[in-house]
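re: ur msg from earlier - yeah i can do the flavin-adenine dinucleotide complex, just paste it... oh wait u already did. ok heres what im feeding in:
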Amino acid sequence: MRMAVPCAAARRSAWARLRWRPGPGGRSVAAAPGPLRAAGGREVPLTSRRYPVQRLPFSRVSRGDVAFFERMMPGRVVTDPEELKPFNVDWLRSVRGCSKLMLKPQTTAEVSQILRYCHERNLAVNPQGGNTGLVGGSVPVFDEIILSTLLMNKIISFDKVSGILVCQAGCILERLSECLEEQGFVMPLDLGAKGSCHIGGNVATNAGGLRLLRYGSLRGTVLGLEVVLADGSVLDCLASLRKDNTGYDLKQLFIGSEGTLGVITAVSILCPQKPKAVNVAFLGCQSFAKVLETFTVGRAMLGEILSAFEFMDEKCMELVQRYLKLSSPVAGSPFYVLIETSGSNSTHDEEKLSNFLEEATASGLATDGTVATDERRIKELWALRERITEALMHEGCVYKYDVALPLGRLYELVTAARARLGPGASSVLGYGHLGDGNLHLNITAESYSRALQDAIEPFVYEWTASCGGSVSAEHGLGFKKKQFMHYSKPQQAISVMRRFKAMFDPKGILNPYKTLPSSP
Ligand code: FAD
Ligand code: MLT
Ligand code: ZN
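and the outut:
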């Protein structure tokens, strides 16, 4: 259906009617880890108490093992229970392991030595980056040794002509962004956890985030990886080439493998030029149908300069305002969209954006809105969307679902969950990367309850599968979602995955209890 386009003067006055107020207060997001306690100040229960999981027959860490590692990497072996605490609990405060040993290698050779030793001794290992994962994959389930990339934080090379960055796996995403920006480039991915997450963790989870619409997934931008396999051998696929068709693309197996096939030690990644002109529009819409229509019109009118299209519902807005004290220049709508444009010519981009906004207003798609062109205000608008995850933690317990759905049905799941759960939940809300067909359905309660979880699962997964969606769009499966893989993958695919696992890690020492469903 063609939309009626009003004349230029009418369009201008329609857009001008939108309220222009100063932007919200707020800082840029850096995934500050909260206190190490669950809702109500209670200690997070051990994973093995909350979930039906049996320890596999791995060896237990002995004094001799600790002595070996201390000789190998003096001062970088952690055994103090207090110091270990934050590395045993996940960011969501939902799972807790009881590892008694964390190792902090600095080089690939050290990772190789560690794994060779653990392989021989049959010791289980949990690779860990910034510990911002949201599916319980980043912390031990029992007493697995934590192999942290915290000290593997060196940039190896950056080529300004090609834009190819090669770095160690433990580089923090935000640090990489800052270094690249000085050279006129940006990382091809961005997420709310950028202040803590490591590039190795990003690759291991195949993180999506806020720039996927523009630069595509890590499956395209990662050009090469160096990986240490479970037996300590080093697989050097750290190519820095845009094109390389020599045989199977092995790096793809490790992207998104969540530490179960190998430890990523270095990454080669293609980085785009920093856009010269960035604008952000934040709009209020009266229904989800209007949000979808805004996306359709935005894609058509903004074309190549559209770089992000995010949405959030009114409940999200209420919580970022209540808990984080952010103020929004746009309020009182059931839905909000954040539209970012990035390009090389500000006059051209602003004109395009302005035409689009006039159209969106005149045709009633957006009933309120604001635009930011300077960096500070852009950050403030982004904070409203990026910091929802943080705000939710103030509610107590968060049940987090990350699904891919056909766009037309994206919000139906939130409505269905709300109807099903009624007053059993504090909040049922939806936000996400609309441009990628990715909904984050979140349900909060004061504290964890098995009954509430049973009311949500497998309902959410069945609903998602019934419309051909994916039960994990970007967060992975980790520990908490692995049993639901079959909703999105046929048994044959799961059994091929098991064969890969057996080939790369025959003793199963790498991140056990994660990603692959336990055998029936
Ligand atoms: P960790 O949490 O430490 O580990 C995650 C998994 O990767 C674990 O299974 C771990 O074993 C494995 N792993 C880590 N490092 C390595 C390695 N070097 N080699 C092999 N395996 C390894 N995710 C998104 O996709 N999009 C988002 O927009 C997004 N936003 C977020 C916002 C907030 C506020 C938070 C807290 C999280 C968000 N996440 C998002 C989830 C999380 O940040 C990502 O999954 C991130 O990529 C994890 O990186 P990390 O270094 O913290 O890895
Ligand atoms: C986001 O898009 O904000 C992240 O994936 C984190 C979340 O789902 O809460
Ligand atoms: Zn997300």
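cool cool. The CA atoms of residues 312 and 385 lie 7 Å apart. ping me if u need the other ligands too
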